[in-house]
Amino acid sequence: MTRGTPALRPPTTDLHSFPSTERKTASSHLYRSHRAGRAPWHFDDTLGPAGGRFNLPAPRGTCYAADDLATAVREGLGSVLGQTNVIEEDLAVSRVVSRIAVAGTLHVAELNNPNAVRHGANRELSASTDYPTTQKWAATLADAGFGALHYESRFTTKAAPTAWALFGPLPETMMLWDSRHDVPGHQACRRCGIEILPAMLDDASARVIDPPGDTTAAGRQPRCRWPAGS
Q1: In 84-103, which positions are buried (b, 16+ CB within 10 angstroms) versus exposed (e)?
Q2: 170 versus 219: which is more confidently predicted?
Q3: Contact indicator for 22, 28 with CB cutoff of 8 Å
Q4: How far, in Å, CA of 52 to CA of 202, rounded?
Q5: What confidence tens digit (pLDDT) does each residue in 137-152 have?
Q6: Left if phi > 0, otherwise alpha if psi is -120 to 50, otherwise beta: which for 218?
């Protein structure tokens, strides 16, 4: 084994004593980035590399949220941002950030607690792309009675746990959301310092005009494209 070999392994010990806190998120609220036109509460149960980091199998699933708007936006976009910090306008406007909360108390596994390492955890839990292994950790922690995980975001550089994995199912009365606080995706991106690339025109949405002057083949200048109707 070399230093470059992944160190995270599936949990092999009982995790009932994993470092934890009792949280009442209704007193503070969380942020969730999701597709516009849909409710924010969604528990994803897709497993394997195509699923989320801490997804639980059906009928449970996992809903992801964050302590702040910036983490929610960047976690929602994921690797789409890459190293450019730029996204296309169509993608930005297709998203929205909602404020959510859970009515009641959550038994939360704190993955960045200094004592978590004693249970086999390390920072790869929140950064590794080995999702089958991180999903096994989620399932084992859920079986130990935890209702949520609090951890560092993979797609930000803040050295603090700001991301959440909320385990389902939750009663509808516990899933709080006030749509009056929703932030449109393009506004949320700008608040986070993400550059939005204007949508490119296609032939169907543009009209072509000739420049003034000589329009013969010999003297023709490059033609201009303008949005239709302008």
Answers
A1: eeebeeebbbebbbbbbbbe
A2: 170
A3: no
A4: 34
A5: 999 999 999 999 999 9
A6: alpha
Q: Around 64, how many Cα atoms within 13 Å sit in the side-chain half-sphere? A: 27
Structure token digits, residue 36: 């516009």
Query: Is 144 in contact with 20 (CB distance < 8 Å)?
Result: no
pLDDT above 60 (res 215): no
Q: What is the pTM of this model?
A: 0.84
Q: Is the peptide bond before 169 cis (omega within 30 degrees of 0)?
A: yes
> What pairing do the DSSP bridges indicate for beta strands 86-88 and 62-66?
unpaired
> Residue 226 is encoded by which pair of tokens?
């303008």
Q: Which range (1-5, 45-49, 55-59, 92-96) has the least confidence?
A: 1-5
Q: Which of 177, 190, 171, 205 is nearest to 70 (CA)?
A: 190
| Residue 192 to residue 155: CA distance in whole angstroms | 13
pLDDT for res 224: 44
Percent of the chain exceeding pLDDT 70 equals: 86
The residue behind tokens 């108390």 is 105
Coil, strand or helix at 20: strand
- C-alpha to C-alpha distance for 142 and 154, rounded to whole angstroms: 21
CA angle 131, 149, 192 (to 5 degrees): 85
